[in-house]
């Protein structure tokens, strides 16, 4: 087989791989900010005044522009409701937290958004609630299983009541 006869085959394989990647991306159901916040809020405990913070964030998830979940350990997370919209929260590559004596306190401490803009406005923490991380993971797993198949016609989807 000559090199010129293999080229169309390689292009076909590349096109199939690209199409599979696009379909895989479409199959991933992304929740809206409001839906993500509602999911986390359902699994949040009662409001607390503060949480222990040793200067290291294990992970974080923006939940719109005025709330976020912050992991301080793999199995420990906190829902932080902010006093108002926090600039660039959805797009920032990193955040920081202010703390005093290894504690982040509601109504006192702030989320620091590390954005590319020259103005970094701190976002005040209004409320702190502990999160049930295991319950959130289970709910996310169930949501991904309940997502409609890409092979299912849209007229076969359950009625949303609208």
Descriptive account of the structure:
Helices cover 30% and strands 26% of the residues. It has 162 residues and is an alpha+beta fold. The N and C termini lie far apart (59 Å). The protein has helices spanning 3-27, 33-42, 133-146, and strands at residues 50-52, 59-62, 67-73, 76-82, 94-97, 103-105, 110-114, 123-131. The protein has 3 helices and 8 strands, in the order ααββββββββα. The strands form 2 sheets. Strands 2-3-4-8-7-5 form a 6-stranded antiparallel sheet, with helices on one face. The radius of gyration is 22 Å and the shape is globular.
The number of helices is 3
Termini, distance in Å?
Answer: 59 Å
Structural class: alpha+beta
- Principal-axes geometry comes out as globular
The total of beta strands comes to 8
Helix and strand run = HHEEEEEEEEH
Strand content: 25-35%
Query: How many whole angstroms does the radius of gyration measure?
Result: 22 Å
State the low-pLDDT regions, or none: 17-28, 149-162
Mean pLDDT: 79
- Main sheet characteristics: 6 strands, antiparallel
* Spatial sequence of strands, sheet with the most strands: 2-3-4-8-7-5
Fraction of residues in H or I helices: 25-40%
